[in-house]
Amino acid sequence: MAVVAQNGGRPSPAAPAAIELRGISKAFGSVQANRDIHLRVERGTIHGIIGENGAGKSTLMSILYGFYKPDSGEILVNGQPLTITDSQTAIRAGIGMVFQHFKLVQNFTVLENIILGVEDGRLLRPSLSKARGVLRRLAQEYELNVDPDETIEELSVGHQQRVEILKALYRQADILILDEPTGVLTPAEADHLFRILEGLRAEGKTIILITHKLREIMEITDTVSVMRRGEMVASVKTAETSPEQLAELMVGRKVLLNVQKAPAQPGKPILEIRNLRMVDDSGVERLRGIDLDIRAGEILGIAGVSGNGQTQLLEILGGYPEKGSTVSGEVRVNGTPLALSGAGCNAAERRRNGLGHIPEDRQAEGLIMDFAAWENVAFGYHDAPEYGRGPLMDRDAIRRDAEGKIRRFDVRPPTCDLAARNFSGGNQQKIVVAREIERNPDLLLIGQPTRGVDIGAIEFIHKRIVELRDAGKAILLVSVELDEIMSLSDRIAVMFDGRIMGERLPQNATVGDLGLLMAGVDPATAAPGDGIPPSQKHLEDLPRDH
Amino acid sequence: MDKMPKWADVILTPLISLVLAMAISALVILAIGESPMVALTTMIDGALGSSYGWGFTLYYATNFIFTGLAVMVAYHASLFNIGGEGQAAMGGLGVALVLLSLPLPHWALALPAAMIGAALFGAAWALIPAWLQARRGSHIVITTIMFNFIAAAALNYILVNLLRPTGSMDPASARFPDATHLPKLSDMALALGFEWGKNTPVNISFFVAVAACVLVWLLIWRTRLGFEIRAFGKSEPAALYAGINPVRITMIAMLVSGGLAGMMAINNVMGEAERLVLNAVEGAGFIGIAVALMGRNHPLGVFLAALLFGFLYQGGGELALWTTIPRELIIVIQALVILFTGALDNMVRMPLERMFLAMRKRGA
Amino acid sequence: EPALIFDLGGKFDKSFNEAAYMGAQRWADETGGTYKELEMQSEAQREQALRRLAETGANPIVMTGFAFGDVLNQVAPDYPDTKFAIIDMVVEQPNVQSIVFTEEQGSYLAGIMAAMASKSGTVGFIGGMDIPLIHKFECGFAQGFKAAKPDGKVLVNYTGTTPAAWNDPVKGGELAKAQISQGADVIYAAAGGTGIGILQAAADEGILSVGVDSNQNHLHPGKVLTSMVKRVDNAVYDAFKNGVEPGVKVMDLKAEGVDVAIDDNNKALVTPEMQAAVDEARAKIASGEVTVHDYMTDNTCPVQ
Amino acid sequence: MDLNTVLQILDSAVRLMTPLLLACLAGLYSERAGVFDIGLEGKMLMSAFSAATVAALTGNVWLGLCAGLSGALLLSAIHGIASITFRGNQLISGVAINFLASGLTVLLGQKIFGLGGRTPSLTPGAELEAQVTPFRAWLSGTAGPDTAGWLTGTPRFGEIALPFAESLRGVPLIGPLYAEVISGHSILVYVAFLMVPLTWWVLYRTRFGLRLRAVGENPASVDTAGVSVTRLRFAAVAIAGLLCGLAGAYLATGLSAGFVKEMTAGRGFIALAALIFAKWRPWGALGATFLFGLLEAIANRYPNLDLGIVTVPSMFMNALPYILTVIILAGFVGRAIPPRAGGEPYVKER
Ligand SMILES: Nc1ncnc2c1ncn2[C@@H]1O[C@H](COP(=O)(O)OP(=O)(O)OP(=O)(O)O)[C@@H](O)[C@H]1O
Ligand SMILES: Nc1ncnc2c1ncn2[C@@H]1O[C@H](COP(=O)(O)OP(=O)(O)OP(=O)(O)O)[C@@H](O)[C@H]1O
Ligand SMILES: [Mg+2]
Ligand SMILES: [Mg+2]
Fold this sequence. Notes:
The complex is a heterotetramer. Chain A is of the alpha/beta class. The model of chain A is unreliable at 1-12 and 526-546 (pLDDT under 50). A six-stranded mixed beta sheet of chain A has the order 6-7-8-3-9-10, with helices on both faces. A six-stranded mixed beta sheet of chain A has the order 16-19-20-13-21-22, sandwiched between helices. Chain A has a four-stranded antiparallel beta sheet with strand order 2-1-4-5, with helices on one face. In chain A, a hairpin with a 2-residue loop joins β14 (326-333) and β15 (336-337). Chain A has 17 helices and 22 strands. By secondary structure, chain B is mainly α. Chain B has a domain at 59-305: ABC transporter involved in vitamin B12 uptake, BtuC (Orthogonal Bundle), CATH 1.10.3470. The longest helix of chain B is centred in the middle third of the chain and has 30 residues, at 107-136. Chain D is mainly α. Helix content of chain D is 68%, strand content 2%. Chain D has helices spanning 3-32, 40-58, 61-85, 90-113, 126-143, 174-182, 187-205, 207-217, 219-224, 229-255, 267-277, 282-301, 314-331, and strands at 159-160, 185-186, 305-306, 311-312. A two-stranded antiparallel ribbon of chain D has the order 1-2. Chain D has a two-stranded antiparallel sheet with strand order 3-4. Chains in contact: A-B, A-D, B-C, B-D, C-D. Chains B and D meet through α5, α6, α13, α15 and α16 of B and α3, α4, α11 and α13 of D. One adenosine-5'-triphosphate binds at residues 31, 53-54, 58, 100, 422-426, 452 of chain A. Chain A: Pfam families: ABC_tran. Chain A: It comes from Paracoccus benzoatiresistens. Chain A: InterPro entries: AAA+_ATPase, ABC_carbohydrate_import_ATPase, ABC_transporter-like_ATP-bd, ABC_transporter-like_CS, P-loop_NTPase. Chain A: Residues 19-254, 271-522 form the ABC transporter domain. Chain A: This is ABC transporter ATP-binding protein.
């Protein structure tokens, strides 16, 4: 390791650092989340922090922001020691934070969220009108456009993140912490974000960026720190390191950053979709005639900005279309048509017939967070004959099965009694992937397989998906990560506004080409599109069926 | 990753909470000018000091087990069934109708028949709120509250106008036939050759209640249906993803819940009163909420909590019967026990956790 | 040592348990004797209480309320040497005295007074829980009222169907106001603690009310027309003092078991004609010339 | 049914809905801040008792009101400590508070007055004199003779005739409506009705309201904004206590004249139902509680509905408000979505 671990205590140079942490430790019960952390972030730089899931990155930043109290250690802001007891202190010291899980009030408007906690007086009206003005200025200055009167739940994730950034800027943050900001963004949105961050840096603001994506680290940061198991293992200048080296520092072993796969050997068609349409319960048409085929031994990747109907497509194929929606069209699996509504349309039934489904949201759908790992391994397959007799479940059989899966998928910690909640995001995902892949489904639906997952786990999950393909199964992969789509898929379809905009082969596709399709522009016809997914448009603008 | 050993969490915490509740109760007793020592010994003596006291304690506990289990089962499907009171009342009606209309020659036949009647009526009374929740999204808390009132009115009408023998002052049904009288635990003890709990109402229903605990435990933690109920209760979107039908689970959970609440009637109506009286449930449905929550929604916990409340009920009853302490003191004591063991448990747990953590650190 | 058992309503129910308590207390004051008393907490305790008292040698044992009937029927044979008395219910056992009151007769008198005091010709009756016993009050009241004012009108309300119906003065007051707005100017309250609210509302609105069970004339002097007193206190006092004589003891008008209370608080409201009419009715009932129908016998009331 | 009957029913509905409305708004503050409160019943009962007790002892209803507010606040504090400070189960805490109030009121009442849990009647008379005289004597003994004059108030809230009620009576429709329905209630009724716009204004137009709503939806958002979740929730729970206090005081010293055990008779639960019905909104609360009041008033007015062929028995009419509630709920009010963080204690560190 050619990297010099710089563990604090070194004499400060002339200009005080924007942030200096000295010996920060924090334990949650018996878990040591941060252990004697030293960190120095120079003013006017972008500082990256990387580390595996659960390494303690979010905890460290939450301490800096006053959300958690450290057990010991010292914080210096602009050279001044500061006791940060709550977020108010941090805000006053010019620290702003965009959390990994946004801290927004879903049914409040953007404006209300912005002023929450920094209102100018007891009455709202003056604060609101002032904020409206400031917001307009900020929006122009940083190209952060959001409708101030829209409620959060109507915004796409990307826009929600803008609100979080605006919140920090409105509080006049000098030091901005972003915790995995790009996990939910499209490449274009991420690029936009980075342009903003660069602008902020140019103004002399300091930025701390947590991410799992080494490409981003290399692209934008000035310095980078690596955390492992609660400790700070290295801080280096970005220019002096490489992705391979960082990955190794992070995981503690060599990591393959590219998917290794042989060319596909497509077989007979497994999934055939013809003219699939879906109208949701408020009358908006979310799918506008989808036609797709997937063959055995092939991965079809669906690229697209989230909110363009991918979720609805996965739900319909998974057997649980949105409540109150009407679905029409034809879907065949292995030649047999699927019921698209009524009693035959049932996720359990689909599973029995050889469908696997890794859902987009593992915490809300894929797992019961309070169930133990072994119970989650049976979740969705709890009716399977090998898991019990008659109405009774055979716990021993399930546990045996779960232990095997956990071992084979390297879930950490390898205990099947721990509640899903207490695994890190990456390991939660491994449990879901193990459950769905190991059943050898003829058709596997996958939504966002690696969102928020660290590179070690990504490598592992990708390998398993490719193995399943090579075993001759059909795979439908939905992801907002273009990198992931391009490296995993055998064919790429791009979805926009409930339609398939076009199909490409990965070897012929370019990011620019796909990006245009994702924005609703067909390069062939060059029909202009506004690039805004429908969920952000006013619903009235959309054509209705009845 | 536990902060403290399981035994400390499961046994030490409630025990200390209980002691705290009793200490405050003692202060209340002092404040109204009575002696806490006398009160405590009267209660313990009256409820646990003799087979006689135990007979009553177990009788009340039987009621609370049924209503506690009822609340618990619904709770696992994240349905808050406040309607135990009405469902138990309707269960009583089911028992009365079965026993008064069918010529059942022996209790061994009458008991299963009455159980079916009780469970059916209780379940039926839970069915409408369940359906409204599943299909129309009407909040189950409101509808079950309303159904308690409606049950009271319906029962009042039925008892006064339909089931009451003419000329009787008492708005109560006729007595059930002698052949259907359930064996009391005291009779069973006598048959085994010793005297236990003479003239106490505890009867064979107690064993039914214990069996119900076991069955409910099996249902919730050992069957596929129970798995679905718990999964649905924890996360509805996940249940949908897994192919669990929300309507079906809501209905089943509420039917089981209502059936359990209704089954309480085999204890109080069939076993004790041997006829249906007005207000036979006497608030057991509401105590079931406390029992389920205190029992941490586990049948064993429900059983223990029901025993505790049976003890409080009987001990308190004795207190009011044989001392000058007003009977409302019991309600205060119950309130304090619920408060300290159910809601203020962290007040005890947090320092304990810190203690154990410190101990472990020193040990390590 | 005699014993007294109160029903679930409790010793201070503002109604007949309280009256029983007064009777026992009077006996204790007069004789200096002591007695045991018990308040029921739950249905299941009835048998327990009876047996425990019998076993500790209490004699006689007096209990209030029809709800004891069934249990007493079972328990009494086990203690042939103990004498029991039950109020408001007939239990046919050789060692049990059943004390029943002719509430319909007392209510009849109250009905006559209400009819004569009413200017509007409309009076009200508010019962507690909707149970047969209370219909007995209602029916007697209506008969008396109709006897004096054949074309008058009796409005009838019941507070509820749960035991809360006995303790809801707010609802009682509201029912009284509803009846007042329909023209009632005398309201008869047979509703335990709820009655307090009814009498209050009547006094607030400036109309008359009729109390029940014990003498409630003093609650709002000059505003309570009378109270239909049910001398449970006398019955208990008697049982304690003179012992219990198995059989049915009917506490009717003649035996001064029921009556309308006239004292300093309502003297001004009772006109001489009213007094005369009441006296006449009382005599006629005593002589059997007038019979007041008892709702309990056939669950119907001859007048509406 | 003539106009007069309608007016009388409306008048009755206004009285009946007032305690429900106050309790419902109490629940609204608490639950909007993320603290579920099924202890409304207990707090009302406690307040009714304290208000009646102090009013009976001092002969002054305003002191009674203060006592009522304090009584309810005390229980609120317990709820707050249990469910906010110690992150206990809010439902259990509420159940405990209901039991506590139901027991304590009778226990204390019996200790103070010896009337079996009842307080003396608050109408001027012998019963009240017996209580008030010693207190006034004691007061003038300790604080000087002329201080007894402070307490010349009434022991009960009287009815307030609004200006021009009588002179406007002649105006068709509006006149009688004003005179019969709107005028002639106790001051607490007007307070309750004013609470509706006030609550709306506080909730949607003030900083406090914004933060309160936020803390019930996503407490972490408030916490990361540097505002204390604990303090906000305590404030909300305290407001709930005050409103329950008003409701209880109205029951005992406005609508009736004294305390009777269990006199709240389930109104706290009905208020809870109304709150869900109202979807946790102030104007909705007004509508929902009015509906409940109206249904009860109608049932009171028509105890035996004679439909010609059959007479609907009184038991049915008594249950009618509840039956109608279920029907309305099933038919007209869709799914009610409670505040997202409701019922969950705010825990930063799992
Ligand atoms: N609220 C909490 N309660 C208890 N333990 C926690 C909590 N948050 C974090 N931890 C512990 O702290 C450790 C560090 O967690 P943290 O969330 O900081 O990791 P991370 O590096 O941000 O992971 P990720 O990449 O998944 O976001 C975890 O392993 C966990 O054991
Ligand atoms: N109560 C707990 N006890 C012990 N460890 C815990 C507990 N809760 C969480 N953890 C640990 O927290 C770590 C991260 O959990 P966390 O919930 O922060 O994941 P996450 O940050 O949401 O994941 P992702 O980054 O994928 O979104 C895991 O290592 C897990 O073991
Ligand atoms: Mg994380
Ligand atoms: Mg993190």
